[in-house]
Amino acid sequence: MAEANSVTQTNDAGVDGASLRFDGLGKTFPDGTEALHDITFAVSKGEFVTVVGPSGCGKSTLLRIASGLDSQTAGSCEVDRANIGYVFQDATLLPWRTVRRNVELFAELHDMDESTKKKAVGDAIELVGLSGFENHHPRQLSGGMRMRVSLARSLVMRPPVFLFDEPFGALDEITRERLNEETLSLFANEGFAGLFITHSITEAVFMSTKVHVMSARPGTIVASYDIPFDYPRKPELRFDPAFAELSGEINQALRGAHT
């Protein structure tokens, strides 16, 4: 199959204000494996959209296409790739660099001037609650703290679009819930367009303005749910009957998506 054009780069939002848009997007690998089929949805500034789906359904591939690390073979992806935040499943820190030096990385790559960089890095470290740990190395940090460093590293550039590829999946439940809450605080402060990938329905409902359910490979959107709960979201929301009911509906859709 001939490869479609790579991600469209634009300095302006789409006509409907979307910061990130997939339109009929598909991905087929050279060996003939169809990973994604006819993906169509958008994410606007101030929206936090989560995709859940079975393992191997193409969720991470979707983020890689959005970031420009991979390309689609059908349809289109419209996004300004000049400044995208990307938080991976692993913190991907440089072990020989301190917290501050890791957070400085993207600012260095973008040739940010020294005074601006110093303030941006300090602000980002403070935002993720790591003040006082600037001179620690990754080996001296817990898993949750390393993910905070990863968040801070992207926050330095104040990206309008943030991609999250199951960033908290390897953490214990309490740490994961705490980082969910802290990420939503960052979302409230920064107002970015967020696209989040997770296997956890509870995490998806707690974090999101909208949840999309993806089918087994080839991944396509089989159900979508608007999440009605207001921000800020308190931890006890997870025990609300309406929260449990909506989580149950998404669970049933996800079970059907495995077939």
Distance between the termini: 27 Å
CATH class of the largest domain: Alpha Beta
**Structure annotation, total helices:** 8
CATH homologous superfamily title of the largest domain: P-loop containing nucleotide triphosphate hydrolases
Q: Mind sketching the topology for me?
A:
Blueprint: E1 18-28, E2 34-44, E3 48-52, H1 59-67, E4 74-79, E5 84-87, H2 99-103, H3 105-109, H4 114-127, H5 143-155, E6 161-165, H6 173-190, E7 193-197, H7 201-207, E8 210-214, E9 221-226, H8 241-257
Parallel strand pairs: 3-7, 3-8, 5-6, 6-7
Antiparallel strand pairs: 1-2, 1-4, 8-9
Helix pairs in contact: 4-5, 7-8
Which terms would index this structure?
259 residues; alpha/beta; Rossmann fold; 6-stranded mixed β-sheet
Structure description:
It is a single chain. The protein is of the alpha/beta class and 259 residues long. The chain has two domains: 18-73 and 161-259, P-loop containing nucleotide triphosphate hydrolases (Rossmann fold), CATH 3.40.50; 84-158, no CATH class. Helix content is 34%, strand content 22%. The protein has eight helices and nine strands. It has helices at residues 59-67, 99-103, 105-109, 114-127, 143-155, 173-190, 201-207, 241-257, and strands spanning 18-28, 34-44, 48-52, 74-79, 84-87, 161-165, 193-197, 210-214, 221-226. A six-stranded mixed beta sheet has the order 5-6-7-3-8-9, sandwiched between helices. It has a three-stranded antiparallel beta sheet with strand order 2-1-4, covered by helices on one side. Strand 6 (161-165), helix 6 (173-190) and strand 7 (193-197) form a beta-alpha-beta unit. Helix 4 (114-127) packs across helix 5 (143-155) and helix 7 packs across helix 8. It is globular, with a radius of gyration of 18 Å. The model is unreliable at 1-15 (pLDDT under 50).
